[in-house]
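cron nightly-structures :: item 1 of 1
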Amino acid sequence: MKVIFATGNMGKMREIRAIMSDTDAEVLSMKEADVYTDVVEDGSTFMENAFIKARAVAKLVKQKGITAAVVADDSGLVDDALGGEPGIYSSRYLGEYTPYKIKNAKIIERLEGVEDEKRTARFVCAMAVVFPDGREDCYEATYEGRIGYEEKGPNGFGYDPIFYLPDRGVSSAELDPDEKNRISHRGKALEGIKEILIKHEA
């Protein structure tokens, strides 16, 4: 089984490979599959964007004569006190190429004075898969927490350093990578997609 993940994010690919390591799937990024495209994700939900990306990449993969399932995800941070921001614009918040240190600082600044219990937030990950025969499926998962008061932790990437887990007393970036893969939005969505891939292959 060959699976191409529609991403160029190496942080995501590390997590994906760790979670898929107990399968016999050949897991490739778009770059490794020599597939290049800049997809306009203009959907109104995470799932719509995941399908837009998966279908666009699957079309290119088919044109190149590659037989592979294509998986795409759209994920982001949903902050309740900010009315759901940055949401589907998480990667483009304050500009697509703005460092996450600046993005994280801005979110903390905007939440100044907001008490603990109102700093609730979640990561959402929607994953869509398009199979070589045209069949499609999807899975969505969430990861609940709060926005912290400062960046903490050397692990993870993106908004992980400001995403605080009250039940564990640490930020997402302070978790051991294996533990994060078990409980995170992407980890849970990948487990769901992995089961879908295995059933389809069977």
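cron nightly-structures :: done
The radius of gyration is 17 Å.
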